[in-house]
Write a structure and sequence with these properties.
Largest sheet: 8 strands, parallel
Structural class: alpha/beta
Radius of gyration: 36 Å
CATH architecture of the domain at 269-458: Alpha Horseshoe
Helix content: 55-70%
Number of strands: 13
Strand order of the largest sheet: 3-2-1-4-5-6-7-13
CATH topology of the domain at 269-458: Serine Threonine Protein Phosphatase 5, Tetratricopeptide repeat
Number of helices: 40
Distance between the termini: 91 Å
């Protein structure tokens, strides 16, 4: 094309016709330029410069052509040369500013626009472009003022109205942004940019369907509008239309292969689909295209975080912050990584930095609360959660978690009202709480199942990324995989250590998958020797662990964590084994269809309650394993050193403080008022809980000194020994004593309980049934209180119960570790046989 044009253009000769020739060629070039035939226009402009090398208008227009053909550096040079010859043309400075902006020299561009405006105070286009530069510099109020000036000069300036909408969106004035975009569209109905910006405002207003329609309109006007396709993908992600979202971003990339934002958005969608490696590759592509892309580095850190590559995630956050020092989201993500690296102090520092930069950052307040929990600062935890909810009342799952935090410090003001609100939220299918708090707040089985199902649907839906799992070839041994973060000094290990040791190695191969810290304590060392294989997987992703379990051909994967803190439900969502079992760590249903069985007994789950559990129930004769090797020290504690009075009846409850509900406590106070000189011995978790409980006691007519708080002892055997100083363990409701009840019974301390409807409310009754002491199981709160008073005031009856407990301790099923192990093995064998007979999971009864 260019060669043909060169032949058609006659050389300009030095005669009287030169001026006329130049003008004719100039007009021809302008026409081609206006028709976007830039290459042909450039040839003609260059012909003119051969005769008039200082023709400033041609130099300027050549610079504009360079700008329009993505040669910004050349554009700056050419327009700069035109300005040197004619420094008084405002259009030159305006277009120089556009070229400088393309080179990301924003401050220089701003200075150029200012010169244009100084020369022509009513230069609406320069004001508009100046606004764009100011927005890039995050000077949003100044940008808005600049757009307003452009509109004041030219009220019909549709582009300025559209850009004004963008600035208002960044200022989080979304309604005003929408109005500004609507005005732009009213002035110019085929304004694709305005429709795209309108979609952005609607997206921020969470009107996702309307936003999608606006992006579609932008694309209908401009079918190759890459940015609109990219943003459309972001909105489709919010509508949970992930495949369509991915396709939209792919379209943006097909149109504009150097579209870094589209790659970053694509990564976000893949991350949502839990395709973390693919997401990481997409973020890396975005960074390859734009090396200073702070957002992509930050997003990349989230993929690395989920891949458990924490050091790499930290480096990615650091890179984002180096590029953008005021990047609140990157500081927040850095805090998340440091939290996983067991550096909660450093995590809090980063959350605080995020909050300093962005005081309305609800997520940072929430995450700070989680880190403060690790630092055992319960009052600060609650304050941080309160701030998160004040900023975002519908913050996912926080309402119930925050109420649970209140219960940890026994701050019961408005607790009943808030529980009622929480229940309503759950029944409205709102993401109001994680499942665990509900176990301690309500005994309702339908409520517990629904909260678990909402959580699983949002956080851990079934993930088919690894494909369907096939059962292994039937072998001589059944491979059991136990998965836990608590293979250490922890209540779950206190119960299970002997079970792991005495599994029948002729029938079973027993493998531990440990995703918790290596504490190197005595229990950890014992457990490492208790398994056939002890696999450390804390630095591996859920996918890698599930793949490893499949590679090891685990037949039955047993989750000892459930919905508790630091659990890894994602492993089971991918199917680690053909049979997956919920056991011991979580006293309720998982609400997940990929968990096949739940270990229980008839006391825990009456048959009429099975409908409220998503798993099939495995009925053992008794549910809870115990370690008969558990040591009780020979240390004899005096009442004085325990802070107990020399005389008087000692009621005790060493359950966590969050299990103490207002109704349970009110019952306890009624008991104390009826038993003169009695005291209540409780665990000391925090000064706030101690103060609140003492105030509650006084409010109920009981002297504060009658509440005695036990300090944490470093050795569990000493904790067991000191329980001999108590007379009666009185249980909590609706969340019973579990390991603490076994501890008390093992130490010879009777446990009084009152079961409810749900699993967690019936554990103490299960243990008392297994130790054949049903007389300590009451049916109503009134009966519970009456029996507590009776045992405290009738020494002979209590003595008889204690003697029976001593006889039953080693002669009944509760502490018969071998009997329990054989029952569990029989259940596993039945699960295994059903699976190999191609039968679906069903309720199993072990007699």
């Amino acid at each position: 094309m260019s060669q043909r044009l060169k032949k058609k253009v006659k050389p300009i000769t030095a005669n009287h016709q030169i001026a006329a020739q130049v003008q004719a060629i100039f007009q021809q070039a302008l026409t081609l330029h206006q028709q976007n035939q830039f290459e042909q226009a450039q040839i003609l402009y260059e012909e003119i410069l051969k005769v008039h090398p200082n023709h400033f208008d041609v130099l300027h227009l050549l610079g504009v052509v360079a700008l329009q053909t993505k040669k910004a550096q050349k554009a700056v040079a050419l327009i700069g040369k035109a300005i040197k010859i004619n420094p008084h043309n405002p259009a030159f400075y305006n277009n120089q500013g556009l070229a400088l902006k393309e080179l990301n020299q924003i401050e220089a561009a701003l200075a150029s626009y200012d010169k244009a405006i100084a020369l022509k105070p009513d230069f609406a286009q320069a004001y508009n472009n100046r606004g764009i530069a100011l927005k890039d510099l995050k000077l949003l109020d100044a940008a808005l003022a600049s757009y307003d000036q452009a509109i004041a000069i030219e009220p019909w300036y549709a582009e300025a109205h559209s850009n004004r909408g963008n600035a208002l969106k960044e200022l989080q004035q979304f309604e005003a942004a929408l109005a500004s975009c609507d005005q732009a569209i009213a002035l110019k109905s085929d304004n694709a940019t305005a429709y795209s910006n309108r979609g952005n405002a609607l997206h921020e207003l969470k009107q996702f369907s309307a936003a999608l329609a606006s992006y579609d309109q932008a694309i209908a006007i401009e079918p190759y509008y890459a940015e609109a396709y990219s943003n459309r993908g972001v909105t489709l992600k919010e509508l949970k239309q992930f495949e369509a979202a991915l396709a939209s971003c792919d379209k943006a990339i097909a149109i504009k292969p150097d579209n870094a934002a589209a790659y970053s958005n694509r990564g976000n969608i893949l991350h949502e689909l839990k395709q973390f490696n693919a997401a990481l590759a997409s973020y890396d592509q975005a960074i390859a295209l734009k090396s200073d892309y702070a957002e992509a580095y930050n997003n990349r850190s989230t993929a690395l975080y989920d891949l458990r590559q924490f050091e790499a995630a930290l480096a990615s956050c650091d890179k984002a912050i180096a590029i953008k020092p005021d990047y609140a989201e990157a500081y927040n993500n850095r805090g998340l990584v440091l939290y996983e690296l067991k550096q909660p102090d450093a995590a809090v520092t980063n959350y605080n930095q995020a909050i300093t930069i962005r005081p309305d950052f609800a997520e940072a307040y929430n995450n700070r609360g989680n880190a403060l929990k690790k630092l055992q600062q319960p009052e600060a935890v609650l304050a941080s959660y309160d701030q998160a909810l004040a900023l975002k009342p519908d913050y996912d799952f926080l309402y119930g978690i925050r109420l649970h935090a209140k219960m940890h410090i026994c701050a019961w003001l408005d607790a009943e009202k808030q529980l009622a609100e929480l229940i309503q939220k759950i029944y409205r299918d709102e993401r109001a709480t994680s499942p665990f708090p509900i176990l301690a707040l309500s005994t309702s089985l339908p409520l517990q199942r629904k909260s678990a199902e909402i959580w699983v649907k949002e956080k851990y839906p079934a993930n088919l990324e690894l494909g369907n799992i096939s059962r292994s070839i039937k072998g001589a041994k059944i491979r059991l995989g136990y998965f836990s973060m608590d293979f250490r000094d922890h209540p779950v290990s206190f119960l299970t250590a002997e079970l792991f040791e005495i599994h029948d190695r002729n029938r079973f191969e027993v493998i531990a998958f440990s995703f918790g810290s290596d504490t190197k304590d005595e229990m950890r060392q014992r457990l490492e020797g208790a398994f056939d294989k002890f696999v450390e997987v804390r630095e591996k992703s859920d996918r890698e662990i599930a793949e490893m379990a499949r590679l090891l051909e685990i037949d039955i994967a047993i989750d000892l964590a459930g919905h508790t803190a630091d659990s890894r439900t994602g492993i089971f969502a991918m199917r680690a084994a053909p049979i997956q079992v919920n056991f011991l760590g979580y006293s309720g249903t998982m609400g997940a269809d990929y968990m096949d069985y739940l270990i229980a007994d008839r006391q825990l789950i009456p048959e009429e309650a099975e409908i409220h559990y998503s798993e099939k129930v495995v009925y053992l004769p008794s549910f809870q394993p115990n370690d008969r090797k558990r040591k009780i020290s020979d240390r004899v504690f005096t009442r004085a050193e325990l802070g107990l009075p020399e005389t008087g009846f000692v009621f005790c409850c060493f359950n966590n403080n969050y299990k103490i509900t207002p109704s349970t406590f009110a019952g306890w106070m009624r008991i104390l008022r009826q038993v003169e000189g009695s005291v209540l011995w409780l665990s000391k978790s925090s000064p706030a809980a101690v103060n609140n409980l003492r105030q509650e006691a006084v409010a109920r007519g009981v002297e504060a000194r009658r509440l005695v708080f036990a300090e944490c002892l470093p050795l569990s055997e000493d904790h067991l020994a000191r329980q001999r100083a108590a007379d009666l363990f009185i249980d909590t409701f609706p969340y019973n004593a579990h390991t603490t009840a076994s501890d008390a019974l093992w130490a010879g301390l009777p446990v009084l309980t009152c079961p409810g409807e749900a699993f967690a409310s019936r554990v103490a009754a299960s243990l008392l049934t297994a130790i054949e002491m049903p007389e300590l199981i009451t049916r109503t709160p009134d009966e519970y209180e009456a029996l507590a008073v009776e045992l405290a005031t009738n020494p002979e009856r209590l003595r008889a119960i204690r003697q029976k407990l001593e006889r039953n301790r080693l002669t009944t099923p509760l502490f018969d570790s071998r009997l329990f192990t054989r029952h569990l093995e029989e259940a596993c064998a039945q699960m295994y046989e059903r699976c190999h007979a191609d039968l679906p999971p069903d309720h199993i009864y072990v007699e």
